[in-house]
Amino acid sequence: MGGRHASNLTYLVAAADVTAIMDVDSARANEIAARCGGAQIYTDAEQLIAAPEVEAVVIAAPNRFHAELTRECIAAGKPVLCEKPLATGGDEAAEVVDAEVSGGRRLVQVGLMRQYDPAHIAVKRVSDNGAQGKALVFRSVHINSSDGWAPSLDDVITGSLIHDIHSARWMMGDEIVGVHTSHIPFSSDRPDSARYVMVQLQFASGALGGLECNADAGYGYEIEVSITGETGVVHSSPLQSPVVRHSNASGQWVEEDWLQRFSAAYINEAQAWVQSVLDGEAAGPSAWDGYVSILVADACIASGRESRPVAVSLPEKPSIYG
Ligand SMILES: NC(=O)c1ccc[n+]([C@@H]2O[C@H](COP(=O)([O-])OP(=O)(O)OC[C@H]3O[C@@H](n4cnc5c(N)ncnc54)[C@H](O)[C@@H]3O)[C@@H](O)[C@H]2O)c1
Asked: What number is the average pLDDT over the span 122-147?
């Protein structure tokens, strides 16, 4: 993911240069720095964050480093685009929010990039126009191909469904107040694994939602999203690719992974982030959104483990988040 961000910022985003790279894998750092026109390589993340030639930072290290590195960027007063999830749990995410609030201004954008995907934006725009009446039900279906990896329930929820959790809040303009998770494991000797996960959502307004993730569909990568209103439904187009008829068959190509499906969203996200850095004010999914998505994800995991509905209660939103 870091390599994709570096390439997008170098070649596809005006007004951005990748000046520095840090990766504990030096071969990987060298490869990406060379691709970005010879960026300076650092072996220490703190030094990179403090470097004068670094005006803003993208964090795409493994999840367990996100919160600490984001707090270091806040302490250095540098805007940061941190990949999802913002942290590995609610307490750690709250520390990031507290650090940003103490500084008095938003510096953090979280890589919940569905907000920059044309298909999601189109569904939200139609739903917000209200032609199909008040929104009653949000649905998202997330299809992954796992390449033989049997992810745990935690992995599916914090790695994949966290995007759908954010879509639900953002597209409905509503908060999730309760969840109920069910899942099918890959095998009976690995009950913690999750081949298929279904989450039922309860929104504060009384609306309902359903999130599904097939962790091992075996045919490609797909995301479907829909909002049902009182008098109609808005649904994303199932596939963007052209229809090909050949040999008495008709078919469409399905994307292989998120890098293909969301290629435009990642570029739009990077462009919007750089513009917010130039404007001097962070925009897009905030540290608060990152925090709330983790609180909901934690509730989904607890619900799945304990086979019961779990309520989500949110602390008061600090004023810097609007
Ligand atoms: N927004 C999205 O759609 C999306 C998609 C994929 C991944 N991600 C996120 O991006 C992050 C990276 O995922 P990935 O699939 O690229 O993983 P990856 O394992 O392919 O890459 C992680 C990189 O981080 C490096 N690394 C390890 N420890 C480090 C440290 N302490 N400091 C700096 N670098 C370190 C590794 O050497 C590796 O090159 C994850 O947090 C993941 O959730 C987001």
From this structure: 94
CA distance 154 to 152: 5
Decide if pLDDT at 238 tops 90. Answer: no
Tell me which residue of 141, 105, 100, 107 sits closest to 239, measured CA to CA. Answer: 141
CB 41 within 8 A of CB 29: yes
d(CA 157, CA 109): 20
Query: Which ligand 1 atom is the nearest neighbour of the CA of 112?
Result: 1
Span 176-223, pLDDT tens digits:
999 999 999 999 999 999 999 999 999 999 999 999 999 999 999 999
**pTM for the full predicted model:** 0.97
From atom 5 of ligand 1, which residue's Cα is the shortest distance away? 1
Delimiting residues of CATH 3.30.360.10 domain(s) in the chain: 118-259
DSSP string, 88-126: SSHHHHHHHHHHHHHHTS--EEE--GGGG-HHHHHHHHH
Superfamily covering domain 2-113+266-286: NAD(P)-binding Rossmann-like Domain (3.40.50.720)
Kindly report, as residue ranges, where domains of CATH 3.40.50.720 are found in the chain: 2-113+266-286
**Residue 128 pLDDT greater than 80, yes or no:** yes
Instruction: Give me the mean pLDDT over the 97-119 stretch.
Output: 97
User: Is it the case that residue 306 has pLDDT exceeding 90?
Assistant: yes
Q: Which residues line ligand 1 (CB under 6 A)?
A: 1-2, 22-25, 28, 45, 60-63, 65, 83-84, 111, 113, 258
| CATH top class, domain 118-259 | alpha beta
Question: Could you tell me the distance, in angstroms and rounded to a whole number, from the CA of residue 192 to the centre of ligand 1?
Answer: 23
Q: Which of 23, 257, 260 to mutate to test the pocket of ligand 1 (most atoms within 8 A of CB)?
A: 23
Residue closest via CA to ligand 1's atom 15 equals 1
